[in-house]
Amino acid sequence: MSRYLKRTTLAAKHRLKLKAVTYHTPAKHVSLKVWVCVFIYALVTGLLIQLVVLPYVFPQLHAGNGLLAGRDWVGFHEQAVVQAQKIAELGWGEFLLRPDGDNSVIGLASFFYVVFGPYPYTLLPLNAAMFAAGGVALFSILKQLQLKDDEALIALLPYLIFPSALLQYGQMHKDVFCTAGLLVVLWSWVSLLNQRCQRWQIIPLIAISCVAVVVVSVFRPYFMLVLLGLAVFLCAWYLVRTLWGFFMRLTRLTGTSSNGALNRNLQSTIILSLLSGFLYMMSNTYLDVRLKPLSRDATHSGLTIPSFSLNSNATVRSADASRILKLHDEEALARAIRECRPVVILRDDAVIENTVNRIFLKIAVARAGFTSSGGTTAASNIDRGIDFCKNEDLIRYIPRALQIAFFAPFPSNWFALEKRNSSAIEIYISAVEMFYCYIAYFGLLYWLFSYRRWSVSLVVPIAFAVGMSLLLGLTVANVGTLYRMRFPFAMIFVSIGMAGILQLAKIRPPWVESSDSSRD
Asked: What are the boundaries of each domain within the chain?
């Protein structure tokens, strides 16, 4: 009898292992297929846009070299060409990741220009690979919402077919790298906090998260503080849950069945503590890359090796350095208030207050940079005359910032052709996309009001997307720039909203069920 029980127990274990293998293997295969399909789609579409559509179908929108006219990538391309020529003449030692001191995409493009020629389409394979990585991450997040493969693929379609996605992979900009990095970070965090996360998956997921964080920090370092804030908040939440679990266990108010939840909360707290520490380090440093030639002949034909270094932000000129005033400088403070310049007062031994004031100052200075930079006369600007002179100004503007972040461009501007840098085609395309977004918001509300669906897989992406959208609404005064920068966060809302609509379509009204039963 005992042998029979052992054999049946062993057989049951094998069946469970086989079931786990058959459960995980197809998921990996589906993710790989999604990546390949998205990569091919983005690469082919990008080539068509740069080599056929812009030069021959819409030449009035073509700035040359397959680039859309009137956008930042035209200047990026010109700077990359100059940098590539300098590298070709003097060697790889002249390579700079940020030739202009800010945009890493210029240095990256100059590397490709030296190797393959000064043509923006040489970056398309890398853009397509990054765009595919972001698509797989978003697909995996949707799958963790208990969606079937076909449902997740349908919900992912806006990420592919939205014309605004063409600006991600079809042009030369840092958006596609930021989009991929942020979506991979969210997917890895959701996977780490998921109850089904296995211990052997923890280290690979942490490593993937750290690599994605580095990518985001290279192209948009100001997102580090937002990621750090989310990680610290989640860490505090799981720490409270862990302490509460220990308290309940010590007082014997719960049984041994709660040990699993306690262990998961403790594990999540440790993981989030490590991620918070790494994010704090990346928020205070920036990654720099240099190329060292291996041969004496330091031309583009010589072999080179990359050299990575982390440099302190203390050596970088800060935009708010001249705007922080001490309390005793009354004259400077009065002049700043009269001129309505963003200013804060730092007090000794007021750590929390100083931290809040520094955050306000960074947001206020960022908004001032957008409102005073080029394109201030464009019709797509919204509330350009509003600046944050005090913390209260920012707080009062939050509802308006959320309205802009979620719903701009507004229906009243969908068919306005007076935009200086936008054609009628671009305006009509944005109108169609926003109309689709409005429909998807109804599905998103369904997910949010279905409390049984609330989980880490839903709360973490939505909370992060709302926070980032609010930050963009507070700082970016130009709708065109906002439209491009909010793409990954808008795709989270739209994809989950599309999934909600698919779930709503499954609901059968009572009168339909009663009619079916009467027919039977």
From this structure: 2-316, 322-370, 371-512
